[in-house]
């Protein structure tokens, strides 16, 4: 039987943004969750702010953990499952790292043994607090924590890919210790797929944790190069889903489109609904898609200062909890619960070497070839160059045709295969 795709939203509180943990108001949270549930969505992704929950390496605030559980219980009352991101980490251009890792206590958050053990204890504590809740999906280690490991971050904690792997293994183990049998994963922003010197690699995303997370944002050069209604912009989320499959060892590893949004001004508000419909439609055409989780639930209040302009209007709902047109589009998709698309039989070859992964980024030959194929209706997926002749691997994925980027020739219509 085909399985239903999950539809949810990244929960941004309408009052106080993520600072609401400092003045937790259950009535306000319940009203937010009512507005989310009214759209027919089935889950939320929740963000404790790490310094608020663990202000000292030896102190995980019991009251904060209780509030997280209370939020999860309120979600359950409204039919919403909950995924919890532990290490925040980075959100909407702001960094939230505890004082015991910065300035006078400056230590590498990925390699310092005391810091890593503090992180593991924190994640294990959150997971254990929720382990008996039926609506608890599992933990995400953190939100785009890879941005702390390399440029363009202004003060990165630099590590090697081997150190990134050891860190992920330790923290995913901690999550499983706290809540055995749940889905535990980690999440990187798209530098993991596109940036040559990023120590969190595509292999980490596709092989560590219980499923692969991709975060799709067209302000990465896609919309700037191609425009809001282009094939690359409207298929970018689907591209990341299919790109991730090249590195997966499991031929049917589930992929979670964990963040995707309609960022102004590249996607103007008047076009957001059309962009949402196109993005979701193409993502749903990807086999093994676990779910779609929109960024984000509610707009950021204009009472809060210093956010990038685009952050204020990314919500499905306004700051006073009114649904926008794009919310209705997502609600329609959630009601449809489309299932099990056909296998993608054409695979584009991508380099396994992470030192040249920029070939997959906007402007790179893999990126351009993929979208020429998509423009011709080929429904491509991807395969590593090291697996392109592996008949067993290709058969397991249903791949019947393998093409290289230089075989995909440009035409005025967008591309064809030779």
UniProtKB/TrEMBL annotation:
<protein>
    <recommendedName>
        <fullName>Glycosyl hydrolase</fullName>
    </recommendedName>
</protein>
<dbReference type="InterPro" id="IPR017853">
    <property type="entry name" value="GH"/>
</dbReference>
């Amino acid at each position: 039987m085909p399985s239903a795709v999950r539809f949810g939203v990244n929960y941004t509180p309408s009052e106080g943004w993520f600072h609401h943990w400092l003045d937790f108001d259950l009535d306000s949270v319940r009203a937010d969750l009512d507005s989310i549930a009214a759209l027919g969505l089935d889950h939320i992704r929740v963000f404790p702010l790490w310094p608020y929950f663990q202000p000292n390496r030896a102190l995980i605030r019991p009251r904060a953990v209780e509030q997280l559980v209370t939020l999860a219980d309120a979600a359950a009352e409204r039919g919403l499952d909950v995924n919890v991101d532990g290490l925040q980490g980075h959100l909407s251009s702001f960094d939230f790292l505890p004082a015991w890792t910065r300035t006078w206590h400056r230590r590498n958050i990925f390699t310092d043994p005391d810091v890593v053990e503090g992180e593991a204890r924190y994640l294990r504590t959150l997971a254990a607090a929720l382990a008996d809740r039926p609506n608890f999906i599992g933990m995400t280690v953190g939100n785009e924590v890879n941005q702390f490991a390399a440029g363009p971050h202004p003060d990165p904690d630099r590590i090697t890919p081997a150190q990134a792997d050891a860190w992920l293994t330790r923290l995913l183990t901690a999550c499983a210790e706290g809540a055995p049998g749940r889905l535990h994963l980690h999440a990187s922003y798209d530098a993991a797929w596109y940036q040559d010197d990023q120590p969190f690699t595509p292999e980490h995303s596709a092989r560590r944790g219980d499923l692969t997370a991709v975060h799709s944002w067209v302000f990465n050069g896609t919309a700037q190069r191609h425009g809001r209604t282009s094939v690359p912009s409207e298929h970018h989320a689907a591209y990341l889903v299919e790109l991730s499959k090249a590195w997966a060892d499991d031929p049917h590893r589930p992929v979670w489109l964990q963040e995707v949004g309609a960022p102004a001004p590249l996607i103007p508000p008047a076009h957001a609904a059309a962009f949402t419909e196109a993005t979701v439609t193409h993502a749903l055409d990807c086999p093994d898609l676990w779910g779609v989780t929109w960024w984000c639930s509610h707009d950021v209040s204009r009472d809060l200062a210093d956010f990038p302009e685009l952050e204020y209007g990314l919500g499905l709902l306004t700051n006073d909890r009114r649904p926008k047109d794009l919310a209705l589009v997502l609600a329609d998709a959630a009601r449809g619960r489309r299932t099990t698309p056909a296998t993608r039989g054409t695979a584009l070859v991508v380099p396994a070497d992470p030192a040249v992964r920029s070939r997959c980024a906007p402007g790179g030959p893999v990126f351009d070839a993929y979208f020429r194929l998509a423009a011709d209706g080929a429904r491509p997926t991807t395969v590593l160059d090291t697996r392109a002749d592996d008949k067993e691997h290709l058969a397991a994925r249903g791949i019947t045709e393998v093409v290289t980027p230089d075989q995909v020739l440009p035409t005025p219509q967008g591309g064809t295969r030779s």
